[in-house]
C-alpha cells in the first residue's frame, strides 16, 4: 500500500465509513420510463411514474431510470472518447485546462470539503456555433466552427416535468428556468488507481447545488448515496444502461423535505 499527499487524506470519521460501507442496496428506486417515451398520452401510466418519482425523491433524493430513450451506442462512444482523452500525457491534457477566463476544460486539483479529490475532470458545454482554434500553434489564426445539432423533435424536459407533476405543479412549471442562458454542462470524470484507497476518495461527500444531475456509471461502480430516510450511506450497484438521477439543492430543500 502506497502513500498519498496529505491534501488528499479524508477526515478519520469519513475514512471509517469508506472502509465499513454497507453492502449494495437493492432498495434504491429503479424507475422504468418506457411509458414516458412510448405512451406519453397514457394518463394512468404517467400518474404511476409521477407517484414513483415523488416517493423516490422524498425517501432518497436519488433514483435510477431505465428505458430512457438514450441510445446505448451514444454512451459507449462518449465513454471511449473519455478514455482516450484521460489516457493522454498530463501535459497534453493541461493544454485545455481551466483558466482565469474559462471555467470549462480539464482540471485535476478540485477540492470537496477542503480535501483534494482523487480524480481528474473535463467540463464542457456547446454553444451554437462554437469557435475553437484549429491548433495550439501561437501563429495559427485558423478557427474551426462546431455546431450543436438538435433533433427535429426535441424530447423536452421530461424528467423535470415528472418532478413538477410530483410536486402538484403544472408539467411545464420549470421550463422557463432552462433556456439559452442556462448553466447546463457535461462533465467527464476519471478516477485513477489510488495507492491508498482507505485514505482518499474520488470525490468526498457533498450535495449537488444545481437542479438535476444525471449520472452515467460504468461497471466499476464506487458511487455511494445517503438515504434521506435514515442517513445511511448506500453503495449504488451499477446497472447496464441505467442513469442515476440526483435531485439537486435548488429543488430538493423546499420541495421534498418534510
Automatic annotation (TrEMBL):
Where's the Fe2OG dioxygenase domain? Answer: 182-258
Cite the GO molecular-function annotations of the record: dioxygenase activity; metal ion binding
Write down the InterPro entries for this protein, in alphabetical order. Answer: DIOX_N, IPNS-like_FE2OG_OXY, IPNS-like_sf, Oxoglu/Fe-dep_dioxygenase_dom
| Keyword Metal-binding applies | yes
Pfam families listed in its UniProt record:
2OG-FeII_Oxy, DIOX_N
Q: Any idea which UniProt keywords this protein has?
A: Iron, Metal-binding, Oxidoreductase
Question: In which domain of life is the source organism classified?
Answer: Eukaryota
SUPFAM superfamilies linked to this entry: Clavaminate synthase-like
Question: Can you tell me which residues the record assigns to a coiled coil?
Answer: none
- What family is reported? Belongs to the iron/ascorbate-dependent oxidoreductase family.
Q: What is this protein called in UniProt?
A: Fe2OG dioxygenase domain-containing protein
The protein's organism comes out as Punica granatum
